[in-house]
Amino acid sequence: MTAEPTRSAGRMRASDTDREAVVEQLREAAAEGRIDLEELDERLGLALTAKTHAELAPLTDDLGPAAVDPVEPLTVKGGVQGAERTGRWKVPPRIIAHGGLGGVRLDFSQAECRLREIDVDVTAGVARVVLVVPVGWKADTDAVDLSFGRLKNKTSGTHLPGKPILRITGSCGMGRIQIRHPNFRERRKQRKDLSR
Asked: What phi and psi values does residue 117 have, to the nearest 5 degrees?
């Protein structure tokens, strides 16, 4: 009875984000010496042409727990107190942000990101969800449902080659979604962190 969902999940079509996550894991495995360059080339070719999750899974199954589920999302819930992800952190291919009552702030300024696209599913609720992105990153907000809330994209809009695209979906609810570049205080803190 439980095998059917697994088979269905395996047949699900893989997205560019799913393929990119597997490619990143394979590159890391090669850098750590867990697979050689010949095997890396072979697996990369298969990853880039994979159409389903079932085709992607075997490419990382033998690389340990970190590679078991390439599409495991990062979930950040604001709750009552609010939540944030700042400083140095590794950006996964998918992020779920629930504003709750306290709001959520995701600061990508110092985050490690080698992905071309990141799916960010936002539910602002009654709070504010703030995404702080470096200059050159693009935020695609076409799929966001405004509902009774507000969406403000204060970024420059310039997308530099090789920089990530945030594909933002979800709903503002009665709250706010704001995308912006680091402010003066945040830039000053980054400079201090880098000088340590």
From this structure: -135, 145
The 3-state DSSP class for residue 195 equals helix
| Residues ≥6 apart with Cβ < 8 Å to 59 | 22, 26, 43, 46, 47, 50
What's the structural domain count of the chain?
A: 2
**Element spanning 30, H or E:** helix 16-31
Q: Which pTM does this prediction carry? A: 0.65
* Cα-Cα end-to-end distance for the chain: 55
Same domain assignment for residues 23 and 97: no
Residues near 152 by beta carbon (within 8 Å), at least 6 away in sequence: 176, 177, 178, 179, 180
Helices 16-31 and 37-49: angle between axes, nearest 10 degrees: 170
Domain boundaries, position 91: 74-195
3-state DSSP assignment of residue 98:
strand
In tens, the pLDDT along 92-147 reads 999 999 999 999 999 999 999 989 999 999 999 999 999 999 999 999 999 999 99
Handedness of CA 92, 93, 98, 102 (dihedral sign): positive
